[in-house]
Design brief:
Blueprint (H helix, E strand, L loop, with lengths): L13 H5 L10 H21 L7 E7 L4 E6 L9 H6 L28 E7 L5 E8 H9 L7 H8 E7 L8 E7 L11 H11 L11 H11 L7 E4 L2 E2 L7 E4 L3 E4 L3 E7 L4 E8 L15 E6 L2 E2 L20 E6 L17 H51 L4 H15 L8 H12 L8 H6 L2 H17 L3 H14 L1
Parallel strand pairs: 1-7, 13-15
Antiparallel strand pairs: 1-2, 2-6, 3-4, 3-6, 4-5, 7-8, 9-10, 11-12, 12-15, 13-14
Helix pairs in contact: 8-9, 8-10, 9-10, 12-13
């Protein structure tokens, strides 16, 4: 017998809070969700119109004075008869996961928690009616926060969402979809911060590479061949087009730069086909690429939209920081690698395990080894340079004399340490000879030519002064330069 209690089950009102602000806890994610929907609509228009010249423009308009946001595309729009079901149903979508970026039917609700009023305005081609779905977000928050538990999710939607349809007086051929957020509210006003939004979209959105990036043509040519339906879109923020931030020269640390020499392509296959395909910049692996350039790290993209953030793959290197030594992208090809609802990782599956196992084997471990080897090589080179400098300093003291007793003591100690360093290529016999000559060296003021020009009393005073200078100067080379300036004045 059927359970009568099942007929009494309801979906509570808090589900709306959960799948809106609870799902997208970082405000800027709402741009990603709406751009994702626009990109899917543009793709659908391209397929159904059989035209590659369809308008791929997505316009974002931010108005700080009115505290409003508008995101508009010129794709298929929604037919008047389908507007109510499409815009007011929750968790129901006709889109398929193997051909669309969004398919759960909840992404359009992302803006509910960040404004007082959310509207969807749309029109399909050839119709003389346009539709407006208006959601009272302020009322939504009030109803969710009160103690009226009898209000379920469907009743809540009906009480805060209204669909109206109006006569369209412009060209019937027009077609569009726009998201409008009014009285926008977010922490630190981030949703109205134009520079921050541009930076975010340049990394997250499916936008083209810059024309002045030397490897744009090479990368995009390969991506279009290997990735089915790979596309980029012309996204504008207040009239300025957004591009991926990749450039030829990247900053490493505070002062070092590294130039991309070439691009290496990488692909993961599970035997049945390609899981992913991507590219890695050929760098000298000096260190972590500066985050200020917005390109650090191996990044994962699905539908050419960033998955999670730049640190998604950090745990799959020997050390987390190694991920940020690299610059590159991996694009998901196998539709069975399904993104989770937050788009910050994949749903658990065999294909997810295959992807991460491939990454560890083909990128994580090999590049961890390369980075360590490069670091060791630089360390050995630096050590060799330092040792050669030490030998030159010792020879200088032998030939010209020392400027302070402590200088002679320090160089003697370092030479003795170098003598027992098995990694140093110089023979210990040569160092023994230097130590012997160093031991018999004299202060440069006591050398014969110098000694005749300076009185004994002045010599004692100068030696004392030079000892102080050497001990107080952290940079010992600077101490020598100061002493030279003093001597020239005598």
């Amino acid at each position: 017998m059927p359970n009568k209690e099942i007929n009494k089950m309801i979906i509570g009102k808090h589900i709306l809070d959960t799948i809106s602000i609870g799902m997208y806890n970082y405000p800027l994610m709402v741009f990603r969700e709406y751009i994702q929907n626009s990109a899917d609509a543009i793709d659908h228009l391209r397929r159904t119109s059989n035209s590659k010249t369809s308008n791929s423009k997505i316009e974002i308009t931010l108005n700080g004075r009115s505290r409003s946001i508008k995101i508009q595309d010129y794709a298929t729009g929604i037919k008047a008869k389908e507007a109510l079901s499409t815009l007011h149903n929750i968790g129901k979508s006709l889109k398929k996961s193997n051909s669309n970026r969004g398919f759960r039917g909840i992404g359009r609700l992302g803006g509910l928690g960040y404004c007082d009023e959310l509207s969807f305005v749309t029109k399909a081609k050839g119709e003389s009616i346009y539709s407006v779905s208006k959601w009272d977000c302020k009322k939504l928050r009030e109803l969710i926060s009160n103690n009226n538990d009898s209000l379920d999710a469907m009743k809540l939607v009906k009480s805060i969402a209204v669909l109206s349809q109006h006569k369209y007086t412009k060209n019937k051929k027009d077609h569009f979809f726009s998201v409008e957020m009014h009285n926008v509210r977010s922490s630190r006003n981030v949703l109205l911060d134009v520079p921050v939004i541009k930076s975010y979209l340049s990394q997250v959105a499916p936008v083209p590479f810059k024309n002045d990036f030397s490897f744009t043509e090479k990368i995009e040519k390969e991506l279009k061949v290997k990735i089915p339906n790979y596309e980029t879109y012309d996204i504008f923020v207040n009239g300025n087009q957004i591009f991926k931030p990749y450039i030829d020269v990247v900053k490493v640390g505070e002062k070092i730069t590294d130039k991309i020499k070439d691009i290496d392509f990488v692909e993961f296959s599970n035997g049945a086909g390609l899981l992913t395909f991507g590219w890695i910049a050929n760098l000298r692996l000096f260190g972590k690429v500066s985050s200020t350039g917005l390109v650090d790290g191996m990044r994962v993209r699905s539908g050419n939209i960033l998955v999670g953030n730049k640190d998604l793959l950090c745990d799959y290197f020997r050390e987390r920081r190694f991920c940020n030594y690299l610059v590159g992208e991996l694009h998901i090809i196998d539709h069975r690698l399904v993104l989770n609802s937050r788009r910050d990782d994949f749903e658990d599956s065999q294909h997810k395990e295959e992807f991460y196992n491939h990454f560890v084997k083909e990128i994580g471990l090999p590049f961890s080894k390369k980075i360590r080897e490069a670091s060791e090589d630089r360390s050995q080179t630096q050590k060799q340079l330092s040792n050669n400098k030490l030998l030159d300093t010792a020879k200088g003291i032998i030939n010209y004399g020392y400027i302070a007793e402590k200088q002679k003591e320090e160089i003697t100690t370092k030479l003795n340490n170098l003598k027992i360093d098995k990694g140093f290529g110089d023979s210990s016999g040569n160092i023994d000879n230097l130590l012997s000559l160093l031991n018999s060296s004299v202060h440069f003021l006591d050398r014969e030519k110098r000694s005749k020009k300076i009185s004994s009393q002045k010599k004692v005073m100068l030696k004392s002064m030079f000892n102080v200078i050497y001990e107080e100067c952290v940079n010992k080379e600077q101490a020598s330069k100061i002493v030279d300036k003093i001597i020239k004045q005598i």
